[in-house]
Design goal:
Blueprint: H1 14-26, E1 30-31, H2 42-49, H3 54-70, E2 75-76, H4 78-89, H5 115-127
Parallel strand pairs: 1-2
Helix pairs in contact: 1-3, 3-4
């Protein structure tokens, strides 16, 4: 059964609800992230970081909560998500979805790839007479 990706711009606040349940209710942490700050776009960044996959969103929230608890804090902050995403994706600091200005242009599935990797893949495909496509996209 295919699931629709979670949209942060939907009417219902699924991401805010999950964050409140996992962080506040279960872990008893204060959430020090302004979910209503349209400029910082936390919900949108979290959804994008997880490619809209509900299970991945929960996993990232739980990992951030765990990081705060292991750090001996009674609050959850943006830096927890920055650190967890960096750990999960292996991305460069400039390509972290939670801090990059161009976060919506970043492709989380390719966060681990270096520029040399991308160039090599493109050259390899062209040498075989094929068009280079985005990582994870099947040519039509």
């Amino acid at each position: 059964m295919p699931f629709e990706p979670v949209s942060a711009s939907g009417d219902d606040d699924l991401i805010g609800t999950v964050l409140a349940i996992v962080a506040k209710k279960h872990a008893k942490l204060e959430v020090r992230i302004d979910l209503d700050d349209k400029e910082k776009q936390f919900r949108e960044r979290l959804s994008h970081a997880c490619e809209g996959e509900f299970g991945s969103i929960i996993q990232l929230i739980r990992a951030a909560v765990e990081l705060a608890i292991l750090g001996g804090r009674d609050f959850l902050e943006l830096q927890d998500f920055v650190d967890v995403y960096a750990s999960f994706s292996g991305c460069k600091p400039t390509r972290n979805v939670f801090t990059a200005a161009n976060w919506d242009e970043l492709e989380p599935a390719t966060a681990l790839l270096r520029d040399d990797d991308r160039a090599w893949e493109e050259a390899r495909l062209k040498s075989k007479g094929k068009n280079a496509t985005k990582y994870g996209v099947r040519p039509q």
